[in-house]
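Record type: monomer structure entry
Structure origin: computed from sequence
Chain ID: A
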Amino acid sequence: MRIPLTWLREFAAVPAEASAEDVMAELVKVGLEEEAVHRPSDALSGPIVVGQVLSLVKEPQSNGKTINWCQVRVVPEGATQTLEGEGISPDGVQGIVCGAHNFVEGDKVIVTLPGAVLPGDFRISPRKTYGHVSAGMIASSRELGIGQDHDGIVVLSTLGLDPELGTSVYDLLGLSDQAAEINVTPDRGYAFSIRGIAREYAHATGTEFTDPATLPAVPSSDGQGYPVRIEDAAPIHGKPGADRFVARIVRDIDPGVPSPQWMVSRLRLAGIRSISLPVDISNYVMWELGQPLHFYDADKLAGPIVVRRAVDGEKITTLDEKERTLSAEDLLITDDSGPIGIAGVMGGGSTEVSSSTRNVLIEAAHFEEVSIGRSRRRHKLPSEASKRFERGVDWRVADIAAQRAVDLLVELAGGVVDPHGTDIGTEPAAPLIELAADYPAARVGIDFSQEQITKALQDIGGSVQSVETGYLVTPPSWRPDLETKDDLTEEIARLVGYHKIPSVLPVAPPGRGLTRVQQQRRRLLQAFADAGLVEVYSYPFVSLVSNQTFGTSEGSIKLANPLSEEFGYLRTSVLPGLIEVAKRNISRGFRDLQLFETGSIFLPSETMGTSSIPPLGERPSDEVLDALYEGVPEQPFQLAAVLAGNDHTGRAWDWADAVDLARLAGDVLGVEVVVSQGQHQAFHPGRTAQLSLRDGAVIGVAGELHPKLIAELDLPVRTVAVELNADELFAAAADVIVAKPISGYPVATQDVALLVAAEVPAGDLLEVLRSGAGELLEHVALFDDYRGTGIPAGKKSLAFGLRFRADDRTLTAEEASEAREAAVAAAAEAFGAVLR
């Protein structure tokens, strides 16, 4: 939900100097999550003003285009230009080349002068083009970042504007405004409106709230308005699909009147595209009050409006021009011609308001949440209206929203309101919730006073009655989510302040053992030790060069008071310290090494450290502690290993051994580690593996260190290493690892050698063979990669060993061969592989 600040200030006491960040900081206090800040001016700078086309000369070009050589005045006639800089004309008349053709002499347009910067860092400066020096640009809405129209430039008269020449466009088009975007949870549908957010801001700041849903005169239904009936024969959960329907008519509107710029600007900042004045008014009222509206062309209606359930198979063509087949659960708006809208989701095309509409019927209804949600999902039709209806809309605001739309149509479109209105339905009974006096304290862990409880419940709009056991509370009509005493308790805690709830560390009960992560960490360390590796610990302080070589590209954290300038940074990889340990041991004669280490690395964040160090001898305040924690860098837990020299059989370690260690880490935790070709500045360019989870998340690297690095560090030839993000492994680990039973039936082995393009990764081909062979395949492994004599240029031969076995029988040679042939066929289809 985007909240333009100028709009919010109409109903809440937001300081004039407050930014979107300031507003979100207040709203966070009452449980609304901040999402983003939207400031059009962030992408714009420099002089962007109103100009008038004095002359326009069309000049055909050799490339078939016709350009306009324009003289544009950007200051009032008789005034001089106050701006200075290259290309700024002192008399206020700019020569500009323009390729658009939707304007004529005398039109007022938007001119970006030299020195202006448009979205995408597009800088305006004088430049020679088509034989002229163009000192500026006449802008389109897309170039300004305020729309998608690039078929022509913005002609201000089409927007209903006639500003003075030289007027800054920032204020004229609302580009100086800003919006705070928050995430609205499903239980707080009232926050999908400026009305709801203004109320929450008042709660957070203790300031005044002006409710926009208080119009001085809303006419009641007199029975002479447009006829409407609610006939819901199949209510869901016993609730009628519609329990209120307000209809108002405004006649003789001017369909050619453009939407006022203030409305367009606010809607645009709220994320809504301007379409036409009636549509913009319906969206504006919905955003302001939270009540979705639907406008019908009254002249296209045939007979009374009837709200009913659909007949299975009934059809409707919606506003998106798609024909939809309806279900008996769908709630419809109909007239004598049939369905004219899916209630609360989308209107029908037959009664759509168009550029020729003169008479408008306004619908403001209240629909049942479950019914709307099911129809929205069934037809895959998410809309701003359904988003609000399925979360709950204020039953009592329908007539006020309709009147607000009537007033805007009369004021802006010159319409005449029909004095007769329609308002049918029955207000649902408000729940009466019993809240024991001691219940909030027992649930939250803080002693709330009677004054705090009563004030919080009244602030949210509830009616509170004190009784002997506690309170009887009737929630306000805009809070259908409040149904139980736990809901009320949450509201009390939220408005009194989450920060007042004490933090109490639980006492660990005896005999429960290690936590899940502790168990996984021990299992991982034990597996590496059992594999013959020796665990070591190194300092977390490294040089900047080491971080740049082995770490990430996210920068390094410099220590304020390092032990030595050489090691003045916190590590962003465990490998530098581990390699230093290996170097020290090699220098002392230990040529064959298998080392591993676990520990945290330190990745910089936006806020690093704090300028305020708390004094000794007293507990820092919560604010100081928060600032300290905000300055603590991210510290993922890593696992790394280095293998140098030979193994116990005298075989030299290679990159495959490093990959096997990564797979070992995955096996002991029940996580599949996906191996693919990778790149890393510290590793050999052709012998580096990228390590990922099945969902694609990259968790590490393995392979042979770069030959130049090995020579520089004086390490044994082909020293290999692996580093993994252990936190990611722990998060993906299975809680219980179930061992697969071993079949007692014999295996059938077959080999296959395939010719493929040299760039095809062996791992990708192996995966295709595995999936193609089917359930009988127990294991597949690459045992040969040949590119020598007899192999065509650009090709390679990859040989795989396939092992087949069944759980319930001895496989025949034919069954194994059939599975092998299926695997080869899959490889041929995927990579054009050919049997060698």
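Annotation 1: The chain has six domains: 2-39+178-205, 42-172, 228-425, 433-500, 517-732, 748-835.
Annotation 2: Residues 813-831 form the longest helix (19 residues).
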